[in-house]
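Reading a protein record of the kind used here takes only a little practice. An example makes this concrete, so a full record is given next.
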Amino acid sequence: MNKMSIRKILSKIENEETFHAVADDYSFSIKIDDYVPYVCAAVHDGHHFDKRLWSKCLHTEYDRWYEEDPCTGNMISLLPITIIAHDSRFEYDLNRDPKEAIYETAWGKTLWKTPLSEAEKMRALEKHDNFYRVVLQLIVKLEEQFGTAVFYDFHSYNRKRWDREVPVFNLGTSNVDQMKYNLAITQWQEILNNVTLPIDQKVTCAINDVFQGNGYFLKYVTSNSLNSLVLATEVSKIYCDEETGVIFPEVVHTLKDKLKYYIQSHAHRFYDRHHTYES
Protein backbone atom coordinates (compact mmCIF):
# COMPACT_ATOMS: atom_id res chain seq x y z
CA MET A 1 0.00 0.00 0.00
CA ASN A 2 1.49 3.33 -1.06
CA LYS A 3 1.55 6.48 1.04
CA MET A 4 -0.25 9.14 -0.97
CA SER A 5 -1.28 12.79 -0.70
CA ILE A 6 -4.96 13.69 -0.63
CA ARG A 7 -4.52 15.52 -3.93
CA LYS A 8 -3.12 12.41 -5.58
CA ILE A 9 -5.89 10.19 -4.15
CA LEU A 10 -8.51 12.59 -5.53
CA SER A 11 -6.77 12.62 -8.90
CA LYS A 12 -6.67 8.83 -9.11
CA ILE A 13 -10.41 8.60 -8.39
CA GLU A 14 -11.16 11.31 -10.95
CA ASN A 15 -9.13 9.38 -13.54
CA GLU A 16 -10.81 6.09 -12.57
CA GLU A 17 -7.52 4.44 -11.63
CA THR A 18 -7.38 1.38 -9.38
CA PHE A 19 -5.03 1.73 -6.41
CA HIS A 20 -4.31 0.97 -2.75
CA ALA A 21 -3.20 3.95 -0.66
CA VAL A 22 -2.79 5.22 2.85
CA ALA A 23 -3.13 8.99 3.35
CA ASP A 24 0.26 10.57 3.84
CA ASP A 25 -0.59 11.35 7.47
CA TYR A 26 -1.73 7.72 7.96
CA SER A 27 -5.19 8.85 9.08
CA PHE A 28 -7.08 6.51 6.73
CA SER A 29 -6.59 4.09 3.87
CA ILE A 30 -8.51 3.60 0.67
CA LYS A 31 -8.56 0.68 -1.72
CA ILE A 32 -10.15 0.58 -5.16
CA ASP A 33 -9.66 -2.75 -6.91
CA ASP A 34 -12.48 -2.08 -9.34
CA TYR A 35 -15.02 0.68 -9.93
CA VAL A 36 -18.31 -0.79 -8.76
CA PRO A 37 -21.52 0.89 -7.54
CA TYR A 38 -20.89 0.16 -3.87
CA VAL A 39 -18.48 1.23 -1.16
CA CYS A 40 -17.68 -0.21 2.27
CA ALA A 41 -16.60 2.14 5.05
CA ALA A 42 -15.30 1.60 8.59
CA VAL A 43 -15.06 5.09 10.07
CA HIS A 44 -14.56 3.95 13.69
CA ASP A 45 -12.06 1.16 13.06
CA GLY A 46 -9.11 3.39 13.99
CA HIS A 47 -7.11 3.01 17.19
CA HIS A 48 -4.13 5.24 16.43
CA PHE A 49 -3.95 8.14 18.88
CA ASP A 50 -1.58 11.05 18.28
CA LYS A 51 1.38 10.62 20.65
CA ARG A 52 1.37 14.36 21.31
CA LEU A 53 -2.05 13.94 23.00
CA TRP A 54 -1.22 10.99 25.27
CA SER A 55 -0.25 13.08 28.29
CA LYS A 56 -3.42 15.17 27.98
CA CYS A 57 -5.91 12.29 27.79
CA LEU A 58 -7.72 11.00 30.88
CA HIS A 59 -9.10 7.91 29.14
CA THR A 60 -6.92 4.81 29.08
CA GLU A 61 -6.05 2.91 25.92
CA TYR A 62 -8.62 0.28 26.94
CA ASP A 63 -11.27 3.00 27.50
CA ARG A 64 -10.66 4.16 23.95
CA TRP A 65 -10.60 0.64 22.49
CA TYR A 66 -13.93 -0.12 24.20
CA GLU A 67 -15.69 2.72 22.37
CA GLU A 68 -14.01 2.12 19.01
CA ASP A 69 -15.10 -0.47 16.44
CA PRO A 70 -12.14 -2.86 16.34
CA CYS A 71 -11.87 -5.28 13.41
CA THR A 72 -14.59 -3.61 11.34
CA GLY A 73 -12.01 -2.62 8.74
CA ASN A 74 -10.85 -6.24 8.57
CA MET A 75 -14.43 -7.43 8.16
CA ILE A 76 -14.94 -5.38 4.98
CA SER A 77 -11.42 -5.81 3.62
CA LEU A 78 -12.30 -8.30 0.86
CA LEU A 79 -14.65 -5.88 -0.92
CA PRO A 80 -13.45 -3.96 -4.01
CA ILE A 81 -13.84 -0.39 -2.66
CA THR A 82 -13.06 0.26 1.00
CA ILE A 83 -12.28 3.36 3.02
CA ILE A 84 -11.04 2.66 6.54
CA ALA A 85 -10.15 5.12 9.30
CA HIS A 86 -6.95 4.55 11.27
CA ASP A 87 -7.18 7.38 13.81
CA SER A 88 -9.18 6.92 16.99
CA ARG A 89 -12.52 8.68 17.31
CA PHE A 90 -11.10 10.11 20.56
CA GLU A 91 -8.89 12.46 18.54
CA TYR A 92 -11.71 13.39 16.12
CA ASP A 93 -14.89 11.52 15.33
CA LEU A 94 -15.53 11.01 11.62
CA ASN A 95 -19.13 10.13 12.37
CA ARG A 96 -19.81 13.58 13.81
CA ASP A 97 -20.24 16.96 12.18
CA PRO A 98 -16.90 18.86 12.22
CA LYS A 99 -18.31 21.31 14.79
CA GLU A 100 -18.86 18.40 17.21
CA ALA A 101 -16.11 16.03 16.09
CA ILE A 102 -13.71 16.74 18.95
CA TYR A 103 -14.92 15.45 22.30
CA GLU A 104 -14.67 17.37 25.55
CA THR A 105 -16.37 14.55 27.43
CA ALA A 106 -16.77 10.98 26.22
CA TRP A 107 -19.28 8.51 27.63
CA GLY A 108 -19.80 10.50 30.82
CA LYS A 109 -16.12 11.15 31.55
CA THR A 110 -14.05 14.25 30.93
CA LEU A 111 -11.60 13.43 28.15
CA TRP A 112 -8.80 15.98 28.54
CA LYS A 113 -6.70 16.99 31.55
CA THR A 114 -6.20 20.35 29.88
CA PRO A 115 -8.17 21.68 26.90
CA LEU A 116 -6.74 21.09 23.45
CA SER A 117 -5.06 24.05 21.83
CA GLU A 118 -6.52 25.60 18.71
CA ALA A 119 -3.58 24.20 16.74
CA GLU A 120 -4.31 20.67 17.99
CA LYS A 121 -7.97 21.01 17.11
CA MET A 122 -7.20 22.37 13.65
CA ARG A 123 -4.75 19.53 12.97
CA ALA A 124 -7.44 16.98 13.82
CA LEU A 125 -10.19 18.74 11.86
CA GLU A 126 -7.98 18.97 8.78
CA LYS A 127 -7.83 15.16 8.78
CA HIS A 128 -11.61 15.02 9.17
CA ASP A 129 -11.99 17.36 6.20
CA ASN A 130 -9.54 15.38 4.04
CA PHE A 131 -11.43 12.16 4.66
CA TYR A 132 -14.69 13.70 3.47
CA ARG A 133 -13.04 15.29 0.44
CA VAL A 134 -12.22 11.75 -0.66
CA VAL A 135 -15.71 10.48 0.19
CA LEU A 136 -17.24 13.27 -1.90
CA GLN A 137 -15.02 12.39 -4.85
CA LEU A 138 -16.16 8.78 -4.57
CA ILE A 139 -19.82 9.80 -4.50
CA VAL A 140 -19.46 12.00 -7.57
CA LYS A 141 -17.44 9.46 -9.55
CA LEU A 142 -19.66 6.46 -8.81
CA GLU A 143 -22.90 8.30 -9.56
CA GLU A 144 -21.32 9.64 -12.73
CA GLN A 145 -20.37 6.10 -13.77
CA PHE A 146 -23.35 4.11 -12.52
CA GLY A 147 -26.16 6.56 -11.74
CA THR A 148 -26.41 5.16 -8.23
CA ALA A 149 -24.38 3.61 -5.43
CA VAL A 150 -24.88 1.97 -2.06
CA PHE A 151 -22.55 2.72 0.85
CA TYR A 152 -22.23 0.08 3.58
CA ASP A 153 -21.37 2.09 6.69
CA PHE A 154 -20.05 -0.61 9.01
CA HIS A 155 -19.83 -0.28 12.81
CA SER A 156 -19.87 -2.37 15.97
CA TYR A 157 -21.38 -1.78 19.39
CA ASN A 158 -21.03 -2.99 22.98
CA ARG A 159 -23.82 -5.44 23.71
CA LYS A 160 -23.01 -5.74 27.43
CA ARG A 161 -23.89 -2.09 27.89
CA TRP A 162 -27.55 -3.01 27.37
CA ASP A 163 -29.67 -4.57 30.10
CA ARG A 164 -31.84 -6.41 27.60
CA GLU A 165 -31.42 -8.78 24.70
CA VAL A 166 -30.06 -6.92 21.68
CA PRO A 167 -29.77 -7.97 18.04
CA VAL A 168 -26.51 -9.17 16.53
CA PHE A 169 -27.07 -6.73 13.65
CA ASN A 170 -28.84 -3.37 13.63
CA LEU A 171 -29.70 -1.19 10.65
CA GLY A 172 -30.14 2.54 11.23
CA THR A 173 -32.50 3.99 8.63
CA SER A 174 -34.08 7.08 10.21
CA ASN A 175 -32.15 9.48 7.94
CA VAL A 176 -32.56 7.74 4.58
CA ASP A 177 -35.54 7.68 2.22
CA GLN A 178 -37.31 4.64 3.68
CA MET A 179 -40.04 4.71 1.04
CA LYS A 180 -37.72 4.81 -1.96
CA TYR A 181 -35.27 2.28 -0.52
CA ASN A 182 -37.68 0.08 1.41
CA LEU A 183 -36.96 -3.06 -0.63
CA ALA A 184 -33.18 -2.63 -0.39
CA ILE A 185 -33.39 -2.12 3.37
CA THR A 186 -35.67 -5.12 3.83
CA GLN A 187 -33.48 -7.35 1.69
CA TRP A 188 -30.35 -6.35 3.64
CA GLN A 189 -32.17 -7.12 6.89
CA GLU A 190 -33.26 -10.53 5.59
CA ILE A 191 -29.72 -11.36 4.47
CA LEU A 192 -28.24 -10.48 7.86
CA ASN A 193 -31.03 -12.34 9.66
CA ASN A 194 -29.87 -15.52 7.94
CA VAL A 195 -26.12 -15.17 8.52
CA THR A 196 -24.64 -18.17 10.35
CA LEU A 197 -21.78 -17.46 12.74
CA PRO A 198 -19.66 -19.64 15.05
CA ILE A 199 -21.37 -18.26 18.16
CA ASP A 200 -23.77 -19.78 20.63
CA GLN A 201 -26.71 -17.48 20.04
CA LYS A 202 -29.33 -16.79 17.44
CA VAL A 203 -28.32 -14.20 14.83
CA THR A 204 -30.97 -11.54 14.27
CA CYS A 205 -31.06 -8.20 12.49
CA ALA A 206 -33.30 -5.37 13.72
CA ILE A 207 -34.05 -1.96 12.25
CA ASN A 208 -33.66 1.16 14.42
CA ASP A 209 -33.41 -0.85 17.62
CA VAL A 210 -30.18 0.05 19.41
CA PHE A 211 -29.23 2.79 16.92
CA GLN A 212 -31.25 4.77 14.41
CA GLY A 213 -28.62 5.82 11.87
CA ASN A 214 -27.90 9.38 12.98
CA GLY A 215 -24.21 9.43 12.08
CA TYR A 216 -22.48 12.13 10.06
CA PHE A 217 -21.12 9.72 7.43
CA LEU A 218 -24.63 8.63 6.51
CA LYS A 219 -25.95 12.19 6.53
CA TYR A 220 -23.01 13.48 4.48
CA VAL A 221 -23.33 10.87 1.75
CA THR A 222 -27.11 11.22 1.68
CA SER A 223 -27.03 15.01 1.39
CA ASN A 224 -24.26 15.02 -1.25
CA SER A 225 -25.62 12.31 -3.52
CA LEU A 226 -28.46 12.27 -6.02
CA ASN A 227 -29.46 8.63 -6.00
CA SER A 228 -27.44 6.69 -3.44
CA LEU A 229 -28.26 4.80 -0.26
CA VAL A 230 -26.26 4.47 2.94
CA LEU A 231 -26.87 1.36 5.03
CA ALA A 232 -25.61 2.08 8.54
CA THR A 233 -24.94 -1.47 9.72
CA GLU A 234 -23.96 -2.28 13.31
CA VAL A 235 -22.72 -5.66 14.52
CA SER A 236 -22.70 -6.31 18.25
CA LYS A 237 -19.30 -7.19 19.68
CA ILE A 238 -19.98 -10.91 19.55
CA TYR A 239 -16.55 -11.21 17.93
CA CYS A 240 -14.56 -10.21 21.03
CA ASP A 241 -14.57 -10.11 24.82
CA GLU A 242 -15.53 -6.52 25.58
CA GLU A 243 -14.11 -6.73 29.10
CA THR A 244 -10.63 -7.99 28.20
CA GLY A 245 -10.14 -6.91 24.60
CA VAL A 246 -9.55 -10.48 23.40
CA ILE A 247 -10.59 -10.90 19.75
CA PHE A 248 -12.26 -14.12 18.56
CA PRO A 249 -10.58 -14.62 15.17
CA GLU A 250 -12.92 -17.37 14.00
CA VAL A 251 -15.89 -14.99 14.28
CA VAL A 252 -14.03 -12.11 12.59
CA HIS A 253 -12.91 -14.36 9.71
CA THR A 254 -16.42 -15.73 9.25
CA LEU A 255 -17.89 -12.23 9.15
CA LYS A 256 -15.26 -11.16 6.63
CA ASP A 257 -16.04 -14.10 4.33
CA LYS A 258 -19.81 -13.72 4.65
CA LEU A 259 -19.79 -9.96 4.12
CA LYS A 260 -17.77 -10.31 0.93
CA TYR A 261 -20.41 -12.55 -0.57
CA TYR A 262 -23.53 -10.92 0.85
CA ILE A 263 -22.56 -7.30 0.18
CA GLN A 264 -21.72 -8.04 -3.44
CA SER A 265 -24.99 -9.92 -3.91
CA HIS A 266 -27.09 -7.20 -2.27
CA ALA A 267 -25.30 -4.37 -4.09
CA HIS A 268 -25.84 -5.93 -7.51
CA ARG A 269 -29.56 -6.25 -6.84
CA PHE A 270 -29.65 -2.65 -5.63
CA TYR A 271 -27.91 -1.48 -8.80
CA ASP A 272 -30.28 -3.40 -11.06
CA ARG A 273 -33.22 -1.71 -9.40
CA HIS A 274 -31.95 1.87 -9.01
CA HIS A 275 -29.45 2.74 -11.74
CA THR A 276 -32.20 3.81 -14.14
CA TYR A 277 -34.17 5.61 -11.43
CA GLU A 278 -35.55 8.97 -12.49
CA SER A 279 -36.76 11.50 -9.95
